[in-house]
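Figure 2 data, in text form.
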Amino acid sequence: MNSIVCNVSIDRGVSAGDFRQAMRRLTGGVSVITAGIGWDISGMTVTSVSSLSVDPPALIVSINREASSWPLMRRYGFFGVNILTSDQIDIADRFTGKGGLKGTERFDGAHWTTRVSGVPLLTDALAAIDCEVEDMVERHSHAIVIGRVLDVAVSTRTAALAYWQGQYVAIDRDEDALKLAEVSLPASRATRRT
């Protein structure tokens, strides 16, 4: 089996465009981060959510410090992570600010609730996670926010929304598991032995 390896030289002179192009090759789950309370709310679409620990439950999210949610997260000390389903592309687009939507306008057309912290959480998300800000590490244009998980609501749905190569991609546990089973490595090894 031939594989092609491209070596990329990285130095302090890497352009934002080159870096962005490299990061588009990393598939990311799409989430909407919400912040604020009452009518003082906003949110943004991100692919930068990751678990930090299970005990205690905590996660990390990278936030652009120019985003409208950043001052709300700092002011109130809470945020929500809403992991989107594959059919919630319209919500993902709204929270990117497409069409000039800002603040509360981004929440129109979807059902929201609040839990422990009071931040808006999407009722039909794959998972809605209510978090308290535990720490913020500001570097360059972004901040790494560590969130202590206060509450979790998990859906029974199986299709997630991902972002890869500059576009949204649906990933369905049931459908994609069948496809993977057809081309899985263990099955191909078994085939070669017979």
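Caption note: Residues 187-194 have pLDDT under 50 and may be disordered.
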